[in-house]
Design brief:
mainly alpha
Length: 93
């Protein structure tokens, strides 16, 4: 269903952009609009990519710390996760 929707949107955009009568004017306007705003768009993309890289690094560091803590906890218990009464219960038949 998503492929059909995407295909429909792509076809509508192509029809809009390459329309036999109005397409040339639309292409000129879009080209002019892109030319006047290109630097702003590219700067926003650069800024966003920097923020995303910083956040992903922070998340990676936090996950690494948590994993290291879990491994340390596992080493301390020798893989034994059952503690207290649950691990000492006898199995009565």
């Amino acid at each position: 269903m998503k492929k059909i929707l995407f295909g429909g949107i792509l076809a509508a955009a192509a029809f809009y952009y390459f329309h036999p009568e109005a397409g040339a004017d639309r292409r000129k306007r879009l080209s002019s609009l892109w030319g006047s705003r290109k630097d702003t768009v590219l700067e926003a993309a650069r800024s966003t990519s920097g923020v995303v890289a910083g956040v992903s690094q922070e998340v990676g560091d936090r996950v690494g710390t948590k994993i290291a803590g879990i491994r340390t906890e596992g080493d301390r218990t020798n893989g034994n996760t059952l503690t207290g009464a649950a691990s000492t219960r006898s199995t009565d038949s």
